[in-house]
Amino acid sequence: MFEIKFKIPKRNLQELERIDFKEFDSKYKDIEEQFALNFNGVWHGVYLDELEIGQEWIILWFELLLESLLRLRCNEYVAFSIPEKYNNWMVFMNENDSLKISTIRVDLSTESKSLFVTKPFERYEETYIKDIKILKKSLFMKYLGIWSYLKIL
User: What is the reported pTM?
Assistant: First the structure.
């Protein structure tokens, strides 16, 4: 199971509804609120109903996930640097009809200056998400609505 949860409090949403994209881009650039990913019961991020504020960049997270999925069309391995987590990466690996997902911390000597990599790091340690498998078809159809466009099954 894969799930994305995010929360934008009503007061913030009402303010965002009153502005156009140009004003949003110059004033905000992103929305900093609650954002969490659920990989078969293992969560990354924070989502709590009783909490009204969050510190994750919602738009950036969607951009990172979408870009990773697009890169998986041509690569077996894609990883992106997790925002605000030094040398921590979220890894996606193609595996038949599934994606295998992990989070890793790379050795400081192999630090990459790129936001995305398509070759596995040589020295790393797995962190809290370890080789979790998600069906590609359910992931893309449920959340992204671009399954036929991606054609990576």
Answer: 0.81
